[in-house]
Amino acid sequence: MGVREDEKDRIPSHPDVGTVTLQQVLEALVDPVRRKIVSALYAADDDLRCGTFDLPVSKSTATHHFHVLRDSGLIRQYYVGTSRMNTLRRKEIERRFPGLLAAVVGPGREV
Amino acid sequence: MGVREDEKDRIPSHPDVGTVTLQQVLEALVDPVRRKIVSALYAADDDLRCGTFDLPVSKSTATHHFHVLRDSGLIRQYYVGTSRMNTLRRKEIERRFPGLLAAVVGPGREV
DNA sequence: CCCTTAGTTCGGTCGCCATCAAACTTCGAT
DNA sequence: ATCGAAGTTTGATGGCGACCGAACTAAGGG
């Protein structure tokens, strides 16, 4: 396992969740498109490719949303071939903002 | 007890929390000024006058924020003399969005 | 009755953010 | 070596929301 050395360069930097503010996370989660992404990851309990989300926006806008989610510490991204995989940073977020994910994208939450 | 009949007209309408969407509540809570208001009400566990919040904005802007909070079902307002009192609709919100208030404005949350 | 206190309403400005199309990159497959 | 698939980057646009000041209203006190 492990990522090939030359893959690393394509992986954008991820923040330490400890440095992320509540303001940042809320700003990320307030957008319905981004909340749909996080909801899907939360429900799937598995990594998902960017293409699998069926978002109501163009690809460039989707890229923007993934970028915001990454910067806010909510997701981690890595490449598999030409696909970008997304991981919900569940445990880290839960430790820093207990109960937040469940309250916002947990089961039974409306879209 | 009870509110005088002619007081009623000065009280703006409050939505049924059941009809409020998660989107609305998140949009209300994403603003730091509004979150400061809700945090104070949450911590005080009592009704507070509009003037007691020490907000970093003008009075007209503060009015705007209280209006948004009212429309989102987070607070209830009523008059006492020339003062407007604010009540956090804690139980109703908790029933509709379990864990949300605690996660966003609960004890230990950063500003 | 006048003044103060507390907050609202109105009109307008400004900045940010979601959005898109177009051109580009990178990989895998043919 | 070419093509298609997947996503990025860039530049531009549009709309919404936070903000303010000024004028206003409503209640209570002197």
UniProtKB/TrEMBL annotation, chains A, B:
GO molecular function ontology, one term from the record: DNA-binding transcription factor activity
Alphabetized UniProt keyword annotations: DNA-binding
Database matches in InterPro entries: ArsR-like_HTH, HTH_ArsR_DNA-bd_dom, WH-like_DNA-bd_sf, WH_DNA-bd_sf
Keyword DNA-binding: yes
HTH arsR-type domain span: 14-111
Protein name (record): DNA-binding transcriptional ArsR family regulator
